[in-house]
Amino acid sequence: MIDVAFTPEEARALPLARTSAVVIDAVRASTTIVGARAVLPVATVEEARRRAASWRDARVLLGGERDGEPPAGFECGNSPAEYTADRVRGRTVVFTTTNGTRALVAVRAASAVAVGGFVNANAVAAWLTSRPGDWVLVCAGEKGRFCLEDAACAGLLVGRLQALTTGRSLSDAARAALTVWEHYRDDPRRLLAEATWARTLAERGRGPDLALCLTLDAFDVVPETLDGALVAGAAAGSALRHRSSSELTLPEGARHNDPILPTGGGDA
Asked: Going by C-beta distance under 8 Å and a sequence separation of 6 or more, which residues neighbour residue 200?
């Protein structure tokens, strides 16, 4: 079966032992994690500081956010553009976010856990099709509530999985997510104009991050959990090369100063 959990709380109620889970925090943690290559996700700001301090050298980078902004003392926030190739090379990112890392904690019981977004959708679909058992796409949501961009991304993945496999049934939630994606498929930028959290980020001047997060299939890597950390591996058969977040290009025809919000909103 292909299933979708729209919040981490829904995921905790699922039988995960024989299930492969993909966590989706489309704006922005999924994009940041995919670009960072080696990430140690933790639940709290305090734990992140403690873990980072235990390294006592330059091999660790402390990153994350609360309510969209980096906590005091963090080297990076949750903008994928901050995690350049030069900055992350040879370093493990100790990472905590309001929603994404909570979702990762919620699915620890799954047989395999990966991170997906718009930026690595093809790679994630290929990774899932190589996994036995059921598949669940877990939306990080927004503080325990439904999040439109995560649901749309889950629907995109449901559609990709349907194209790659036969005989897999869809849960009601998976069908609902697919319907959300089909509503925005022909104009994904409209999703950013209508999604509450995307609008909030744009109003705070984070519009360029939104365009990066909506870049389809920019990466051929799938960050997968290994001993509690997320380590990026290439999807089997992928012809795409890995790019750092700083190398991502905007959707065709878009510019960094294009408006994403209707008149009176922020900049893209």
From this structure: 68
As beta bridge partners, residue 61 has: 93
Domain assignment of residue 59, yes or no: yes
Cβ neighbours of 240 (radius 10 Å) = 15
C-alpha distances in Å from residue 262, one per residue of 71, 189, 199, 208, 267: 30, 11, 10, 16, 10
DSSP per-residue codes, 128-139: HHTS-SEEEEEE
Q: Taking the model in full, what pTM does it have?
A: 0.84
| Domain hosting residue 179, numbered range | 2-247
pLDDT tens-digit series, residues 219-260:
999 999 988 889 876 454 443 333 444 343 333 333 322 222
Number of domains forming the structure of the chain: 1
Check which CATH number belongs to the domain holding 129 and give it.
3.90.1560.10
How many other CB atoms sit within 10 Å of the CB of residue 13? 9
The answer as to whether 52 is a domain residue is: yes
* Per-residue pLDDT tens over the stretch 115-128: 999 999 999 999 99
Rounded to whole angstroms, the Cα distance separating 177 from 226 reads: 28
d(CA 122, CA 45): 32
Sorted by sequence, the CB contacts under 8 Å of residue 207 that are 6+ apart come out as 201, 256, 260, 266, 267, 268
| Residue 31 domain-assigned (yes or no) | yes
Measured CA to CA, the distance from residue 188 to residue 124 in angstroms comes to 19
Residue 75 domain-assigned (yes or no): yes
